[in-house]
Amino acid sequence: SHFKIGIVVGSLRKDSFNKQTAHALIKLFPQEFTCQFIDISALPLYNQDDDSHTPSSVIDFKQQIKACQGIIFVTPEYNRSIPGVLKNAIDQASRPYGTNAWNEIPAGIIGVSIGNISTAIAQQHLRNSLAFLNMPTLNQPECYLKWYDGMVENGQFSEKTATFMQNWVDAYVAFVKQNNQ
Ligand code: FNR
User: Which of 110, 16, 24, 34 is nearest to 72 (CA)?
Assistant: First the structure.
């Protein structure tokens, strides 16, 4: 069978290290997997008053999520948590109550930072929300990347990072298969 994986990037920055990492990441997947970026940049700010007339961009966003057999969050850490734009996207797709689009989709978390502890705290915060939203989430291996010059070149990981990331992808692939039986 075939598996569709949605990639949600937590940075809107054009040259985002997380975006570059996500593009290199998707090249490491086996043939029966298709990775598709799910854009969060045009979503409105969540407002519970809109639950009675959900904006069409949100309905479309939720449909894209529900069509996936897996979701990978590739996100920076902002002020020791996840960026507000990512939290907004998570909140948008979780509502109106009873229509949580994230439900039961196996998740993976990757984070790139320029800091020494990488995105460790942001990832733990993200895990809290994903647990509440009933997304089974890959626990090990964890993926905390510290950006360095040459980590991604011409859309591909350097040799040493490729080895590390292939190991992560292999574990996530097995996890997605296990959770889509
Ligand atoms: C940061 N950065 C950062 N890094 C980190 O390791 N921990 C943190 O808490 C923060 N906080 C933070 C807040 C804000 C508002 C910004 C703009 C940045 C630095 C961050 O790692 C760096 O900007 C990355 O380049 C962001 O990822 P992208 O946009 O390159 O994917």
Answer: 110
Task: Say if strands 156-157 and 70-74 run parallel, antiparallel, or are unpaired.
Answer: unpaired
Residues of the domain holding 128? 3-47+54-178
Domain containing 21 — which CATH number?
Answer: 3.40.50.360
Ligand 1 pocket test, candidate residues 41, 79, 126, most atoms within 8 A of CB:
79
- Strands 152-153, 156-157: parallel, antiparallel or unpaired by DSSP? antiparallel
pLDDT tens readout for residues 66-81: 999 999 999 999 999 9
- Please count the structural domains in the chain: 1
State the pLDDT at residue 151. Answer: 98
Residue 179 Cα to ligand 1 midpoint, Å, equals 32
Determine the Cα–Cα distance for residues 146 and 82; give it in Å rounded to an integer: 16
The percentage of the chain sitting over the pLDDT mark of 90, rounded to a whole number, equals 99
113 touches ligand 1 (CB under 6 Å): yes
Structure confidence at residue 106 (pLDDT): 98
Query: Is the CB of 160 within 6 Å of ligand 1?
Result: no
144 lines ligand 1 (CB under 6 A): no
This complex has an ipTM of: 0.99
Nearest-atom index, ligand 1, CA of 118: 6
